[in-house]
Design brief:
There is one protein chain. By secondary structure, the chain is α/β, with parallel strands linked by helices. Helices cover about 40% and strands about 20% of the residues. A hairpin with a 2-residue loop joins β6 and β7. The structure holds sulfoquinovose-uridine-C1,5'-diphosphate.
């Protein structure tokens, strides 16, 4: 396959690019670098030092002997994305190129608008570019389980068969997301449903759960190939945050009672799922939806598991009840389906004590880089706010100096 990974510099995009390259596919990454700018604005950085995209690609070549082409551009810019499609001619596009954080989107109007403009208009620009330049290619679009919210009925995979006043139809499953970020993905899904009906595109919309994990087969091959694991209150997802909090000796930040349930998967299973989707493309004119997760947990369950895994290693882990900064149900029904990817061969890697201990050991190597000032949530869903230390130039200078000490030439670019 000729695979273009849009957002190929991110937590999932970079490991995805290496995964397919290692398996002999022709891979290119396309990225605007905006995620690194958002990190710098907020004064946060990934737990492990991260090389520049240029260094990542060069190291991958040296380690694997395989080339990943790199395009610098914004998916929302017609010239950038069209020039890339003309030049690379992908048959598979994997689109991760979106602002991924719910808290970021809830800071204030500017951040909500930036999130929706970046995500919704970028995907719309891509749909038109595909119509004109690569109409037979397969688009694998990363959506989110958060599109559905937490309805009081079972969550089907994208569509719902309903009977109404004696007539039956298959409709898009009702969406009730909880942040302007999650809502941006709903808008994407709707735009892609229309584009596909009009132009016969092939689309797989992956409604992915909360991803956790520190590494993949490829990220561990050299320090420059590490992925951007976040633990901060903006970009860190809950399991990754709890693991980092545990190794930093900080209490686990359970929001509210911890009764809220979500769907989860390991970063290695993200790669497996995306590969399954790529190998089994959607038909022309089809928006196929897969619910991409392997297990459901409540936040309190996760805190228990991280505590048990750490205690077995001799760590003393405490817990803090943080008044929930989000507007979400504390206790609710949650029963999403995920049979489609399993039927196509997904072999889940579950959240076992071994997996958590592997994450704790990895995070402990970088524990000195954990900044306790960015752990507490600062964005309140009702009042917004929370731009934290990132606005202060001296903190960014401090981060850059540390990155330079870690030997990363890219440090100046952050
Ligand atoms: N939570 C805590 N403590 C924390 C962080 C989070 O209790 O320190 C709770 C939240 O209140 C929420 C749950 O954990 O109920 C999940 O929060 P999260 O920040 O891990 O995940 P979320 O905001 O839903 O977003 C993440 C990714 C996003 C992806 C989504 C998948 O950032 O890109 O789309 O997971 S899903 O949640 O299935 O929509």
């Amino acid at each position: 396959m000729r695979i273009l990974v849009i957002g190929g510099d991110g937590y999932l995009g970079w490991p995805t690019a290496m995964h397919f390259s290692a398996r002999g596919h022709d891979v290119a990454v396309f990225d605007s670098g905006v995620k690194r700018r958002w990190e710098a604005q907020l004064g946060v950085r990934p737990l492990a030092p991260i090389a520049s995209l240029h260094e990542r690609v060069a190291t991958w070549k040296a380690v694997s002997g395989k080339a990943i082409q790199s395009y610098s551009g914004d998916v929302g810019d017609a010239r950038d994305i069209r020039a890339t499609l003309r030049d690379f001619r992908p048959d598979t596009l994997i689109h991760y190129g979106e602002q991924p954080s719910a808290p970021f989107s809830m800071i204030d109007a500017a951040h909500a608008i930036e999130t929706q403009a970046n995500n919704v208009l970028g995907t719309l620009q891509l749909a038109f570019a595909m119509r004109d330049l690569t109409p037979d290619a397969h688009l694998i679009k990363l959506g989110t389980m958060g599109e559905y919210g937490t309805p009081n009925i079972d969550i089907e995979e994208g569509y719902l068969e309903i009977e109404h006043n004696g007539r039956r139809d298959r409709v898009a499953f009702p969406k009730n997301p909880g942040s302007f970020y999650h809502l941006s993905k709903v808008h994407d899904s709707n735009n892609l449903i229309l584009a596909t009906r009009l132009w016969g595109l092939r689309v797989t919309d992956l409604n992915q759960g909360v991803v956790y994990g520190t590494d993949t087969d490829e990220t561990g091959l050299a320090p420059e190939l590490a992925t951007s694991f976040h633990y901060d209150g903006w970009f860190g997802t809950v399991i990754n945050r709890f693991v980092a909090q545990a190794v930093a000796g900080q209490p686990l930040t359970v929001y509210g009672e911890g009764g809220q349930k979500r769907a989860f998967l390991n970063i290695r299973d993200t790669l497996q799922c995306v590969e399954i989707a790529a190998r089994n493309p959607a038909a022309p004119g089809e928006v196929r939806v897969f619910n991409q997760f392997t297990e459901c947990f409540s936040v309190a369950d996760i805190a228990d598991r991280v505590t048990a895994a750490g205690s077995a290693l001799g760590m003393a882990i405490s817990r803090q009840t943080v008044p929930n900064p989000r507007v979400e149900s504390a206790q609710h029904y949650y029963n999403p389906k995920n049979s489609a990817l399993l039927a196509l061969g997904l072999a889940p890697r579950l959240l076992t004590e071994d997996v958590l201990q592997g994450m704790l050991a990895w995070a402990a190597r970088y524990a000195k880089r954990i900044d306790p000032r960015v752990i507490q949530p600062t964005v309140d869903w009702r009042r917004g706010g929370g731009r934290s230390r990132g606005d202060r130039a001296e903190n960014r200078a401090e981060d850059r100096a540390e990155d330079r000490a870690a030997g990363l030439a890219s440090a100046g670019a952050r």
